């Protein structure tokens, strides 16, 4: 039963399991205590800190363990903003950060701070120049992920770190997706990561704060973890997390080559096997194990459900698979198709035959979902030379991918040069109608508010 | 090797270990995902929530899991304060709460809020009337522990909850020390607890918020745990925590009787076996497994070190065993002797023979530390009828227990009715000199600032 969602959570690495079990007997006591059980716990904690710091590329006394990666991000952002309060209250983030960063930014805004969200290109990558331009005299902190969690695109961390250094702004790197593959290059100031992403147990985050970085932990603190992460340390899990990180790093060189080839195979084949697919993210500067694509005329929830029935576990940034009914903020920032979105992220050790089977299964699954939704087959139908020049489709109240399916059908009712207007109130239409036009070679004329919902206008060009 | 510090952290319960190991294979995936690994994780999480909620005495949808007990306290206090911001910014706590509560209170004060710390009596207990008087029209939240973590005294939670209900103020109960023994009685609004205190793994806290309580989570949130505790859930640890709580509850009735008798034995014998000992905390309304006493003329660190050499692991609220060089805030609030302080908290299953051996070992350990420090033997020496009426001891720069030892020696140099003044700058003297007077039947005249440090005056009465 192939699990292809390592980017959400990796299965526990066998080394993590061993380390966890071995340290349950030694690591349960309070490491702040002077008695033997406390000293033993302290030794385990110190050794884990050394190992994790080496993998991160920092000094052990720069590294704190937190209760989760999300917590590390929150503590890191708030501690830095607070430590540089005198400089100003401006925060720079990329538009495609993990929600833990964007939620912190939103919270900072509602506390009266200001935030600049640096745009990304269609591959999901920020431009170092655009990022540098966002830095201001009152910028307290800049945040950039090492690699995007939804599309795998690597960010230019070293260049952005250099721009931040030149501007005297600390850079916080969310390394959650990449730390398994190697340390983050460049002169970062603060780094956050999450153990369950690399095969460690849940419940362990890393927060590294370089010496000399102004940092003032916010809220109530205690004496644990250099005063940066209050609460009793979860030592067996910390030991397991550090052991797993060492173990995956030992496999990283060989596995990155192997998984990169498997992902390359998916990237190449998916467009050949399934019509109307857009593979998104940077084709080269990317995580080795992750590929994301979107399928026209498919709703993400049905697709995931069918793939799950076929025993493939993947995730999706489509609106209809989330409770918010909006497409993933990453796909929106990239301006790419969001419907029928599938993220495949291969765990270490993924078998080639499972990837091949996925490619065998996928076309039938997509076709069955499309058939059920009444999607148009193949390219847009022949233009109707006798049709009206203007035709309006009312998709109000219909959810993704219906507005796009109705657009695809309606385009056949106008002659070349004619215009179809789609009325829709589903948020995904804003992304998916322009994306459809690009994929289909039709001209997107833009949107304007309608009496109800939004009117999207498309001119038939062929 | 008897471990007598369950109140810091209990050894992992065998049931917790089993449950942890069993759920490592099923509980690592993201419970928010729709695929089978996610659904399995969700089932485990839901079942653990049901079990824990039953043990707490709340509805499953009122209960969130957090990354630690400290985190549960912080989230609970900030969420309640924020939810009742319109009512006011006044917070009531007892003076003997856990540091996680007091740190939150201090942080609230530095944010501009106001805090009332309700005093306790010499047993460490708040008076329900005094607590009720502290409630005001602008009180947003009241906090009270179910039982004190250092001396074991049970707090009148049900009475205080009733007073809070009458005043329309929500009551947050820190149940960390008592939840193993049973649910918290009374109409509490919010409850926090910590799994490693009851034999669950570290990394799991409980936060229960009753329906209808105004609660607005502070800072960045996400969709996990009803929006109350951001970050990926640590499901294997949560499963183990819930299983351990059920298991200890099943043993609670029998073990509380058995451990209560062992503690009773320590309470009765320690004063007979060791001269100049004060047993502190409520002798009856107390946790079954915990007893605290203080030994005159002994420094806590040496005492703990010697007990550790004798293979007993205990903790201490003495100043010299902490990094802050101040005695525990609990002992200070109670106004009891802090020097040579020892907390014994027995884990489930503690053998009677280990307690007996502790009582055998303790007198020699205390005597050896006293001999090394040159403590006076037995009662105060004979009064010197020819001595000066006033005698001053300069203990500036000397740490606990030296000022008290020097006082005890100097008292022999004055006649009955004469006065000894001790000059000291160690914070513990403020607590320990009056406590010595009470234990020795000498008259404490009070303190006043001296050119350096503080002058403590004692009149010889016998």
TrEMBL record, chains A, B:
Could you tell me which InterPro entries the record lists for this protein? Aminotrans_V_dom, PyrdxlP-dep_Trfase, PyrdxlP-dep_Trfase_major, PyrdxlP-dep_Trfase_small, TusA-like, TusA-like_sf
Domain of life, source organism: Bacteria
Catalysed reaction(s) here are: (sulfur carrier)-H + L-cysteine = (sulfur carrier)-SH + L-alanine
List its EC numbers: 2.8.1.7
Tell me the enzyme class: transferase
Checking Gene3D superfamilies in the record gives: Aspartate Aminotransferase, domain 1, TusA-like domain, Type I PLP-dependent aspartate aminotransferase-like (Major domain)
Q: Which UniProt keywords apply?
A: Transferase
Domain UPF0033, chain residue ranges per copy: 393-417
Gene Ontology terms for molecular function: cysteine desulfurase activity
Family of the protein in this entry: Belongs to the class-V pyridoxal-phosphate-dependent aminotransferase family. NifS/IscS subfamily.
**Name used for this protein in its record:** Cysteine desulfurase IscS
Query: To which species is this protein native?
Result: Streptomyces hundungensis
